[in-house]
Amino acid sequence: MVPVPNNNSSSEEQKFQVRKLQISDKNKGFIELLRQLTICDSVSDKDFEDRFRELSALGDDHIVSVVEDESSGKIIATGSIFIEKKFLRNCGKVGHIEDVAVDSNARGLKLGKKIIAFLTEHAHLMGCYKLILLRQELEDFERAVNLSSMTDKSQMQEDIISGHKQFVKAIMEQIIHAEKNLEDT
Q: How does pLDDT run across 69-79, given as a tens digit for each residue?
């Protein structure tokens, strides 16, 4: 079992720790958070438990991470990684980051960046030579930011949009940096 990456240091960061999904997280708004990302129909408790156990059986090859707001008990950010085993590069591994979502009320706290850093570290610990964050997800997010900039011209909205654009840029830089680091190992 690969150790859980430790990316939390200060007391403020302790409030928003990244951790692996737990079975109790369904009752903490996990599915509702996914609905902010894309279509996610109702998931019964049984279906959630079955899928949770199925993913858990994959061990470190498939991780769903979350951030829980300790004050509200709600899941406010998530992301997942699965490790693809290849024949290329001496039977190397590639990490695929997907389904990164931050609750609309928690945006601006850099939780998406924390989730991606956690998953990037996991890929590194698993020995991945490459990391893939589906650019389509990032492009969809960027399109949504650009669309909202056309519909609301208030100063507060412009500040939020500017922050989102900085987030997209920072994530792209982090992807490039992570891929370079993985290539160097």
A: 999 999 999 99
